[in-house]
Specification:
With 157 residues, the chain is α+β, with helices and mostly antiparallel strands. The two termini are 40 Å apart.
Length: 157
């Protein structure tokens, strides 16, 4: 689970504990969090118990290793949190591949958030030097998606 997502869950639990709400249910992509306040039959001074019912197995807490290699070229980052899709539909050809030429405004991928699909487009003409995210991966705002080399940089090599 991504640390930012874990922090959000902890904030929701704290807010629920402070509130007088009997129940809270939040759904975000594949994560569903449901909290119910259990009431004791006799009044008690103890804090109410919280029940968190997971729907699916939690994703691994392991984070991918960050590479120390310097990045040359323009790094295209995610403008928002969402699911990274390399192709317009399952089984379709990807929008771009490493080594492929792109023109300014050309779709590079789609980010899906809450069933809304947003295209990420090339900010300039160039060549795809690297694809940083895997198809179907949950990406965060600011996370690198592509490294794009300018056409003149590629020709000079």
């Amino acid at each position: 689970m991504v640390p930012a997502r874990l922090a959000t869950i902890k904030e929701l639990i704290d807010a629920f504990a402070r509130s007088g709400a009997e129940e809270l249910e939040v759904t975000d992509g594949t994560l569903r969090l449901r909290m119910l306040r259990k009431r004791a039959s006799a009044p008690s001074l103890a804090a109410p118990a919280l029940e968190v019912a997971p729907v699916a197995p939690a994703p691994s807490l392991e984070m991918p290793a960050i590479e120390a290699a310097p990045v040359s070229g323009l790094v295209v980052t995610a403008a928002m949190h969402g699911v990274f899709h390399r192709a317009p539909a399952p089984g379709a050809e990807p929008f771009v591949n490493v080594g492929g030429s792109v023109t300014r405004g050309q779709a590079l991928c789609i980010l899906e958030a809450m069933k809304v699909f947003n295209a990420v487009v090339a900010p300039q003409d160039g060549v795809i030097a690297r694809i940083h995210a895997e198809n179907g991966e949950d990406v965060m705002a600011g996370q690198p998606l592509f490294t794009l080399e300018a056409v003149q940089q590629r020709a000079a090599e």
